[in-house]
Design goal:
Layout: H1 6-12, H2 17-30, H3 36-41, H4 50-60, E1 66-70, H5 76-82, H6 87-97, E2 101-102, H7 110-122, E3 127-132, E4 145-146, E5 149-150, H8 151-160, E6 162-168, H9 169-174, H10 190-193, E7 199-202, H11 209-222, H12 235-238, H13 249-253, H14 264-267, H15 286-289, H16 334-339, H17 343-357, H18 361-368, H19 382-388
Parallel strand pairs: 1-2, 1-3, 3-6, 6-7
Antiparallel strand pairs: 4-5
Helix pairs in contact: 2-4, 2-17, 5-11, 6-18
The chain binds iron/sulfur cluster (SF4) (2 copies).
């Protein structure tokens, strides 16, 4: 029997056509949709709007199967998604647009394992594999074992039938905290191991939920992963530093710095660079998207950026240690700040903000009711791991 399209699935749950179109607009903004690839996706339509591109995909495609595996981590990325600032949208993506198997959210046991195996078989070559947590290669991967299988075997098995792989969080992207010195389990990034499938990294500690869901949606709509930087991070969300969009930036430019967390400068909201802020060298969307329904982000709340979306962030020079202003790299996007927020991030922001402001609230609520890159770790192949283990 022909599988239902996503639209048919949503319609059967009571979503009106009008709310569906609102939802398409929200999703288009959420994923920072660019215009050039959609022309190809729409065939005859030469200049479709982003919402039309999304609508076409959702009315013609079935749900996107996702297999979500969890290795060495704290489950913070799953936790962040389940408490996303756009909970209805996250729920919509994970329940009604995608997902078949989530290692942590599903009841554990043989039934969950069976569901995963059936999903891998049924959707061979079509599903997206999301990996949270770092793979470990020491001693053939025995330091992370699920259902009697080493994480290396699980990764190999799930990657074989995947159309693409999304590594969410710093652990899966670069090894993260499990990979910090002395790294006893030889934790590494997924892209260090997987060379025969497209891999994208969504680093962060945790990853920003809207960035993970936005990347999943991009693959669903466009049938490919978005453009990335040299660390395999999607440019839409990692094209600028925290420093580029930081609200404390005027104080930085004026040379006004907090010298301690409780001094006059801290109370006045001065720049946190001398307290160890790594915003100038950290590429992530926190300052643009913010967290918790756009309420704030760490630097706005008085805490320096720790650089959690960069490789080696745990070992990279320590936290809360002031750095010389001379260390700020020249490529920091001063001009981008002057020009305002970039187009792509602006589109993503508009979508997220639209969801936050409730413009698509009705659409979302009606659904939610129902419902290598260069890694910090030394590249290690599976054959090498056996040798070194
Ligand atoms: S150094 Fe940190 S606190 Fe200062 S402007 Fe840059 S990102 Fe903001
Ligand atoms: S502000 Fe920096 S350390 Fe904090 S979540 Fe964002 S990228 Fe990570």
């Amino acid at each position: 029997m022909k599988e239902k399209t996503i639209y048919e699935h949503l319609r059967d749950k009571g979503l009106s056509r009008r709310d569906f179109m609102k939802l398409c607009g929200t999703i288009a903004g959420m994923m920072g949709l660019e215009f050039s690839p959609p022309v190809k996706a729409l065939g005859k339509l030469a200049h479709p709007t982003p919402a039309e591109v999304v609508a076409r995909a959702l009315t013609t495609k079935p749900k996107l199967p996702i297999i979500w595996l969890e290795f060495q981590d704290c489950a913070g990325c799953s936790e962040a998604i389940s408490r996303s600032s756009s909970p209805s949208l996250a729920k919509l993506v994970l329940n009604d647009i995608a997902i078949e198997y989530h290692e942590t959210l599903m009841a554990a046991g043989s039934q969950a394992e069976k569901a995963k195996e059936e999903c891998m078989e049924k959707y061979r070559g079509k599903y997206v594999l999301v990996v949270e947590g770092s793979p470990t290669v020491a001693d053939d991967g025995i330091y992370c074992v699920v259902a009697g299988k080493s994480n290396l075997d699980l990764l190999k098995e799930a990657t074989a039938g995947a159309a693409a792989v999304i590594a969410t969080g710093n652990c899966a992207s670069f090894g993260g905290i499990p990979g910090a010195n002395p790294n006893p389990t030889r934790a590494c990034g997924v892209a260090d191991l997987i060379k025969d499938k497209p891999v994208i990294n969504i680093p962060g500690c945790p990853a920003i939920p809207e960035v993970t869901t936005g990347t999943i949606l991009y693959f669903l709509i466009m049938g490919e992963l978005p453009k990335t930087d040299h660390l395999l991070r999607p440019l839409t969300f990692y094209g600028h530093t925290i420093h580029d969009h930081c609200l404390r930036r005027p104080f930085y430019e004026a040379g006004k710095f907090a010298e301690s967390f409780d001094d006059e400068g801290a109370r006045k909201g001065y720049c946190l660079y001398k307290l160890g802020c790594k915003g100038p060298t950290t590429y992530n969307a926190c300052a643009a998207l913010k967290w918790e329904q756009g309420l704030s982000y760490p630097v706005q709340s008085g805490h320096p950026c720790l650089g959690c979306s960069e490789p080696h962030f745990w070992d990279g020079g320590g936290f809360y240690q002031g750095q010389s202003a001379a260390l700020i790299p020249p490529e920091s996007k001063t001009t981008a700040v002057a020009a305002g927020v970039g187009v792509a991030i602006g589109a993503a922001l508009a979508g997220v903000n639209a969801a936050k402001k409730g413009r698509a609230k009705k659409a979302l609520t009606s659904i939610s009711a129902v419902g290598p890159g260069e890694s910090g770790a030394k590249p290690i192949s599976q054959s090498e791991s056996k040798k070194e283990g």
